[in-house]
Amino acid sequence: MKILFVSNVRSHIGQFHTNYINYLRKNGHHIEVSCYDNSADKDGYDFSSIDAFHFIPLQRSPFKLKNLKAISELTQIIKDGNYDIIHCHTPMGAVAARTAAKRAKTKAKVIYTAHGFHFFKGAPLMNWLFFYPVEKYLARYTDTLITINSEDYNLAVKKKFKVKDGIIRVNGVGVDLKKFTPSTDEIKAKLREEYGYSQDSFMLIYPADIVRGKNQEMIFNAVKSLQEKIPTIRLLLPGHQRMLEEYKQIVKEMGIEDRVDFLGYRRDIHKLVSMCDISVSASRREGLPVNLIEAMAIGKPIIATRVRGNADLVENGVNGYLVELDNWQEMADRIYEIYTHQNSGKNVRKVLNRERKPYACRCVQEIRSCI
What we know:
Helices cover 39% and strands 17% of the residues. By secondary structure, it is α/β, with parallel strands linked by helices. β8, α8 and β9 (233-238) form a beta-alpha-beta unit.
């Protein structure tokens, strides 16, 4: 088969889809990708299984005029490509792909994996006024809609999205369980020595882009409130640094700049998570967050906001804790609870019955079930 993947940016393909693209390529399928080239910001991925890239000026914001040019170019790519399947991802990637597929009058099956609808419980009214009607309208030009969390699946079914072959739910895009393996005290100690961190530090990690939606300020407040109770507390923030200068100023004003490390975009997340004590997330919304699945695979306790996506993964008191959005005091209390157990010599596993749930790559089944 000849398959075209469409996403907003190149790094999305590299970060979330290379595992099953590799599988498809090894099984004789021809793979092409159309997206915006953001390799200047995020690079380092292995795209050797992709036969061709088609870069288009697709923008994240739906209100950019360049998107019209991107859709026009994508329409021609689809006309010329004679694809069997078009698999689209990200909100604008999906809008562009389905609009272009309709214009090209292609016979290819169009699959859309929704990584988290922009309209959700608690979303701004504008999201519902714009994104909801667009998604519902384009559903009729979708052969299969794949959702990755319960809220999105239930909403699409309840609102009767007119998808041709149906709506299904798959638990995310998966992680590589050969790479994200259970950590031990020995591994943690060795990695801390390698990266130059003290063995006595109590380390939190939040792998996420430095952007407003990831809500890092909630964790800053928790860290500030704990710096006397936990003198060795430290927060690692690997991620693309869109708001770096603003956030550096915030932590400086809060007096915690020596406790927060902005690490930039990284390709060694598995090592960074392994050497930390807790994986935290303050996100305002998620699809099904890979950073939490990675933490589960490594065996780290999680403290995350009780929002869509996070709540699909974290069973409160079992593999982590859920706290209310923006309630930094509740997050601080949970961090301190785990710290006191760990500091007293007790095994955190007695506090949290952590599970290494097998959220391995399921997307090959997505393709197979939709053909």
